[in-house]
Amino acid sequence: MPNNEQLEQLKSETQLLISKISHEIRNPVALIQSTLDLMAIRHPEITQFDEWDDIMDSMDYLKGLLNDVSEFNNATRLHLQPTHMKEFLTATFRSLQPTLDYLFIHLVTELNLPETPLLIDPTKFRQALLNLLRNAYEASPMHGIIHFYAFSKDSLLILQIEDNGCGIPPEDLSTLFQPFVTHKKGGTGLGLTITKQIIEAHNGTITVESSPGKGTKFTITLPMTS
């Protein structure tokens, strides 16, 4: 059975391989996109065909997949810094507000947090929260409500995101965090996997509860000390 050092070496080699493959694929994808853009400029009539929309949708999916693979590969590489969580969360919500306003979705927040800074990677942690919030508003009906709770308990920071959307079928819950498993159209199956990796890299945990037709609640638990 491999020891921890061997596992870390294997992980490092795998990450390097994924990075190289992603880079090699990204170059021809960029060339194809540039060629398509040039074709649209020189022959704008082709953009009126249904097939053109299908091609552009496929290109968007491919570029999104490459971005997700890159994020998946780097999710556990953290740049930690002391962060005041109330200010951090408020800024995160503010960045999302225009989207919520456009979708007529109301975000209700309850932040009962200590003043002590928490050691996190702000960029990665924001990405994890935005992944969960995006899932929440995509599952919510127009005029839906998303609740975000943040509080401390027994030296733990607890964050909860709860929506009143369509919910998740019980048979899908066991594979929810598995890579490349998706239950929504156009998904890459990496968003929640990346989120889980980021949370666990912060020595935290993430759980989910859901009732079809009623909504879903994700709970993140983090230690208050590094």
TrEMBL record:
SMART domains given in the database record: HATPase_c (SM00387), HisKA (SM00388)
Coarse class of the protein's main subcellular location: membrane
Pfam families attached to this UniProt entry: HATPase_c, HisKA
GO cellular component, one term: membrane
The keyword Metal-binding is annotated on this UniProt entry: no
UniProtKB keywords: Kinase, Phosphoprotein, Transferase, Two-component regulatory system
Residue span(s) of domain Histidine kinase: 20-226
InterPro entries: HATPase_C_sf (IPR036890), HATPase_dom (IPR003594), His_kinase_dom (IPR005467), HisK_dim/P_dom (IPR003661), HisK_dim/P_sf (IPR036097), Sensor_HK_Regulatory (IPR050736), Sig_transdc_His_kin-like_C (IPR004358)
EC class name: transferase
Keyword Electron transport: no
Location in the cell: Membrane
Catalytic activity: ATP + protein L-histidine = ADP + protein N-phospho-L-histidine
Entry's EC annotation: 2.7.13.3
Gene Ontology molecular function: any one: phosphorelay sensor kinase activity
Name of protein: histidine kinase
Species of the source: Blautia hydrogenotrophica (strain DSM 10507 / JCM 14656 / S5a33) (Ruminococcus hydrogenotrophicus)
